[in-house]
Amino acid sequence: MDKLIITGGQTLKGELRISGAKNAALPILAATLLSETPVKVGNVPHLHDITTTIALLGHMGITITIDERLNIEIDTQSISRLEAPYELVKTMRASILVLGPLLSRFGKAHVSLPGGCAIGTRPVNIHLDCLTKMGAEITVKNGYIHASAERLHGTHLVMDQVTVTGTENIMMAAVLAEGTTIIENAAKEPEVEDLSHFLNCLGAKITGIGTSTITIEGVEKLQPKDLFYKILPDRIETGTYLTAAAITGGHIKLKDTHPKSLEIVIKKLRETGAEITCGDDWIELNMHGQRPKAVSIDTAPFPAFPTDMQAQFTALNTIATGTSIITETVFENRFMHIQEMQRMGAQITIKQNTAICEGIPELTAAPVMATDLRASASLVLAGLVAKGDTIVDRIYHIDRGYECIEEKLTQLGATIRRVPH
Q: 201 an active-site residue?
């Protein structure tokens, strides 16, 4: 198990290219199961979760070709297994996303209950309830979901709560269902939009994209010709590097990104004192060497402040001037990074789902342990401004969502290296 060692005190400066979005790539790779002809996908990030998904598709017998530019061609004509085994999906929540496509196209699926980050309850019951209403027969036994249906049928669904993977799974199931499916209280995240656009490129008929009411008119089959689809940039990676620059008083420019997907994060960074300018596909942040001002945040589904940026802003607030209030409304266990930051001297008090942070001038390096993907990123950010050498352990979490993080930070002037356990 590798570790990262960060020597704090460097101001981040320079330019970076942003990778493709993990949270768009995973459902899009799952959605290729719906296509009867080969599909090529580009701008796929090189991450552990992507490797796991490709291994899962390979386990099913699907033919996968990767070219020198890391474009992935997927041909499902050779599929021989309709299952997602525990050994392959135990580390990855997004594995549940193969359930809808397999059931819709092939009429059956055997999918292990997924794993992933320990950040709170993320039940799959919403997925299963909606699929049942669409005509599926579902049982859960020995840790596996067993689903079957001759053909799913369209229906009117109201999600009990906003769920990204739930919206994506049902949307994929509905594209080959008989009749029309309406999903109300649907997730509006950019990654859901990207999946919708991809499905329409395959030949699906989806309207209401980007709204809370999505309508899917079922079609008989999906047979795109010579489709090459480029995945959108990763807004959370973008936000993480912007916050890293802000916390160090730095000046960076991020290219190949999508500012419109980050409007609330950019607004909050401007509140810290950052000067930010944007183009169609780039963002530049300049702190002019100043210490950030404290900024309060409340997490909620898109377009509100993303829960996936909460930990990074918590790190920023630890060394900001003033007091901040951080309210987490999405996941109940998403403050586990705070205990590690307290080991570095952070002055944070937790009251239920709220953290009150009194900013201090400087953190002190300490050995810390990552508990989930975004927590690991926040501890790296804390290490950038801590006095001494911070050791971040269990960084396999970070490799699930950040492509070459130590190389990119080094490119910006950070002193960071990966060492074997």
A: no
